[in-house]
């Protein structure tokens, strides 16, 4: 054993590593490549990085004393611990990172392909004393003979051509984009033109490989956004950038590595060479956009919330080190405002909200930590971002978790019984956003809570006596007892959890009401509700309407559109017109800053009521 080092055992992973005494457990976990959640970025605020540790470690910190009523059972906060001697570590099931489902679009639409990338097969006449035209002009002349005027895009290509065309025996394929010759390939490679569309989300990054000629989706893959180890929400990550000298570089590197990992797996799956991937499009919220480009997002988080850039950005792949053809193009979607990014532009593009010319009023909602709300009618689009808080993503909920394996996603109360639907089956580990909405809807229906959200103790119906409990002076509802849950902890919906949900739902509902007011319309006029994003795909629309998260509209169709933002990114890959439209959308959307409106607080208070 290296002198001075101590052993750290992770029996659940059958791993042991050596660390120097004084090493933080957070760092040791990273070195052991064991991923656990650090939702607040290791600040000791969220209380969700629970582990059990036996051995010599630092004494419980004040943050642990505050958070862990289970200290006596040996549970600690991983972010607060320093290793002092040999230890064994056990991770709480709720603290484990597991990968969320890969979400793709649920919209079926035909995209007319008109990509920027064209391939032209050329057989060049060999140079002679009579035809001493230079090599580059020879290629350009041949292209011209086929009706294509294109100039070499860069010096690297000019350097490549002389040797290359001779090696290829003067038979080659020219790759052209927007009047620029940007690649030459040996032989006839027509039919091998690919692009990849990315949705760079705060939680996960999804990439979809597309055949640029046929429009066919060849493979999709996603990974957890590795930045999550610095905090689950974007505010924590922005503060990480401000508090670490290399914070921005670290976050940019991590997101690019994840993107490249996806490209590698997609090209392997579809048996496509990465050199034949010529374009990548990116949608994401404004903060992720800034991280990807290596732009400090500080001003997005402070008043008056100004992005560094809103318009679309086009780069060469080599400028960011994205692992497609290095002379290929990167098309980064434009933003609308600090809290409305290219992902919202992607949703508007994919759902045709901008181009539909009819009198129907359509409401699109993408709920995350920020809820993006879009109202569209006859080409006019108003949109806002409402600070819904993290409740819908399972954060700040005592037994909350993301929508991943082991999360309660459905709740039904029947005659004194609690029936729960758990993602991937088995015993529940916690409750995710859709489970929370379902649970509160059912509690309201069963009169266990009133419209103010207060848990009525004792319950009106005696059949719930066993489930409505009081602990330390506060009421709660027992969703799963220690015998019913994984990990032996009861899953209790507390009064605070319900308040967190009310804050989130109030913010969304207030945003909807204010946008309707902006158009001078009442909610009864809404013809269609589109639910975008992961939460929108999982939520039961009836429960959302029952608690008043969405207006209860008898005539309106409610439709989940899945990851519509990624479809927007695919459309921009396949169609030049769609890319132009994305830019027009960002210029034409009317953004409403809710925080600046005097009536927001009263709308929020009204929106927080359950069932209204
Ligand atoms: S308390 Fe440890 S990550 Fe939040």
TrEMBL record:
Gene3D superfamilies: 3.10.20.30, 3.10.20.880, Domain of unknown function (DUF4445)
Example GO molecular function: iron-sulfur cluster binding
Domain of life, source organism: Bacteria
Domain 2Fe-2S ferredoxin-type: 4-95
Coiled-coil residues: none
UniProt-listed InterPro entries: 2Fe-2S_ferredoxin-like_sf, 2Fe-2S_ferredoxin-type, Beta-grasp_dom_sf, Corrinoid_activation_enz, Raco-like_middle, Raco-like_middle_sf, RACo_C, RACo_linker
Pfam families reported in the protein's UniProt record: Fer2 (PF00111), RACo_C_ter (PF14574), RACo_linker (PF17650), Raco_middle (PF17651)
PANTHER family to which the protein is assigned, alphabetical: IRON-SULFUR CLUSTER PROTEIN, IRON-SULFUR CLUSTER-BINDING PROTEIN-RELATED
Protein name: DUF4445 domain-containing protein
Species for this entry: Aerophobetes bacterium
């Amino acid at each position: 054993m290296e002198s001075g080092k101590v052993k750290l055992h992770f029996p659940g992973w059958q791993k042991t590593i050596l660390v120097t005494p004084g090493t933080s457990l957070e760092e040791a976990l990273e070195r052991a490549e064991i991923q656990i959640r650090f939702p607040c970025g290791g600040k000791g605020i969220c209380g969700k990085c629970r582990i059990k540790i036996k051995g010599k470690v630092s004494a419980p910190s004040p943050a642990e004393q505050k958070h862990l009523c289970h200290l006596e059972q040996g549970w600690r906060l991983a972010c607060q611990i320093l290793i002092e001697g040999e230890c064994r570590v056990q991770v709480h099931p709720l603290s484990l990172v597991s990968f969320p489902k890969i979400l793709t679009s649920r919209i079926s639409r035909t995209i007319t392909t008109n990509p920027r990338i064209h391939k032209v097969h050329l057989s060049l006449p060999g140079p002679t004393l009579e035809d001493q035209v230079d090599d580059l002009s020879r290629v350009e002349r041949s292209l011209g003979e086929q009706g294509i005027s294109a100039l070499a895009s860069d010096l690297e290509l000019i350097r490549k051509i002389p040797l290359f065309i001779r090696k290829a025996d003067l038979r080659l394929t020219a790759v052209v984009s927007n009047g620029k010759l940007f690649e030459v390939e040996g032989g006839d490679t027509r039919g091998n033109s690919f692009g990849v569309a990315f949705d760079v989300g705060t939680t996960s990054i999804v990439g979809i490989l597309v055949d640029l000629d046929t429009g066919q989706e060849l493979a999709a893959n996603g990974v957890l956004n590795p930045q999550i180890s610095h905090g689950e929400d974007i505010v924590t990550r922005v503060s990480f950038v401000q508090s670490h000298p290399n914070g921005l570089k670290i976050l940019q590197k991590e997101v690019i590595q994840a993107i490249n990992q996806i490209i590698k797996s997609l090209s392997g799956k579809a048996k496509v060479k990465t050199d034949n991937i010529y374009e990548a499009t990116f949608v994401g919220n404004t903060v992720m956009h800034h991280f990807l480009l290596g732009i400090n997002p500080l001003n997005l988080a402070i008043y008056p919330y100004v992005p560094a850039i809103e318009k679309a950005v086009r780069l060469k792949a080599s400028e960011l080190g994205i692992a497609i053809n290095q002379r290929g193009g990167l098309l980064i979607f434009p933003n609308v405002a600090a809290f409305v990014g290219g992902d919202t532009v992607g949703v508007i593009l994919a759902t045709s909200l901008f181009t539909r010319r009819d009198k129907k009023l359509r409401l699109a909602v993408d709920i995350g930590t920020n809820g993006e709300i879009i109202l569209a009618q006859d080409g006019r689009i108003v949109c806002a971002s409402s600070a819904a808080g993290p409740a819908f993503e399972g954060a700040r909920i005592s037994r909350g978790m993301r929508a991943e394996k082991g999360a309660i996603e459905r709740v039904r109360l029947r005659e004194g019984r609690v029936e729960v639907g758990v993602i991937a089956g088995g015993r529940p580990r916690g409750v995710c956003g859709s489970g929370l909405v379902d649970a509160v809807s059912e509690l309201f229906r069963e009169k266990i809570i009133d419209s103010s959200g207060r848990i009525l103790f004792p319950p009106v119906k005696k059949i719930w006596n066993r489930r409505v409990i009081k602990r330390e002076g506060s009421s709660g509802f027992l969703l799963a007892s220690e015998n019913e849950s994984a990990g032996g902890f009861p899953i209790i919906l507390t009064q605070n959890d319900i308040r967190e949900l009310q804050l989130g739902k109030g913010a969304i509902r207030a945003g909807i009401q204010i946008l309707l007011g902006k158009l001078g319309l009442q909610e009864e006029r809404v013809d269609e509700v589109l639910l975008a994003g992961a939460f929108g795909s999982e939520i039961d629309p009836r429960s959302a309407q029952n608690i008043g998260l969405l207006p209860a509209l008898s005539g309106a169709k409610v439709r989940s559109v899945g990851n519509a933002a990624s479809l927007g990114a695919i459309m921009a890959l396949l169609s030049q017109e769609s890319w132009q439209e994305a830019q027009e959308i960002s210029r034409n959307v009317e953004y409403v800053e809710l925080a600046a409106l005097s009536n927001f607080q009263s709308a929020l208070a009204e929106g927080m009521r359950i069932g209204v």
